[in-house]
Amino acid sequence: MEKINCYKCNNPNNPITAKFCNECGAGMICECGQIIIGGNFCSNCAKPIGDNNSESKISGRNKFVFREDADGRHMEADFSDHAAKDFSETLRDVLVAKHLTAGSLPENTDVTAENEQIEDAEIVGDQDTKTPSKNNNDTSNPKVENYPTLQSVVLKNLPSSEIEWVIVYSFYASDFGSKQYTRSDILKMYEVTNRKTKNTARDLGSRIRRAVQSNCINPLNTNGDFSILDAGIDKAKEIIS
Predict the structure, then answer these.
(1) How much is the pLDDT for 235?
(2) Is 150-240 CATH 1.10.10.10?
(3) How far is it, in rounded angstroms, from Cα 191 to Cα 195?
(4) 3-class SS at 27?
(5) With a threshold of 0.70, does the pTM exceed it?
């Protein structure tokens, strides 16, 4: 059988088909052909020839330099072709994952900010806005009635007698039945409506007594204080309506 010499130890007992030296374990062939004795590189592909017994060391070498930024995370490494391929794929996956993670934050932030703007925005347009209906039976806010002014009552000459005038005056003097009043308040009503005369001033006492007898007004004390009763309020409303 034809033999070949080892390029490293010059062992002549290696078969021509040997891949490694049976004496020192050095690789006998490159990926593209047999290694020439004394050579430092393959004569076919120019790859450097390794000096140990691993076939992968005969293959070419690859230098990787990793540098992140701001003088941080520097790395330099020397790999064979196969190891470099695996490393490059791993490094690529790491960098892609890092890019996606870093890039997803601003996008999510933008979406969150946009959602907040939508939630905070005032809705303008066709909205079915309903005003809560008021309960007609609600007595917490009593209905405020509008009564004609005394001048209007005078112009229409609504009371048909001086007793009715006293009842109407009592109604207005008592703020429509909400407070007490005096005989002087009734006289002021006569003056305001230009109906005060000697006769009306003289006869006022007797007309007040008749209104009291008809249960329209009520004397509260001997000081001349009065209050208008419910019958008087109803009578006054009837007269001015």
Answers:
(1) 94
(2) yes
(3) 6
(4) strand
(5) no
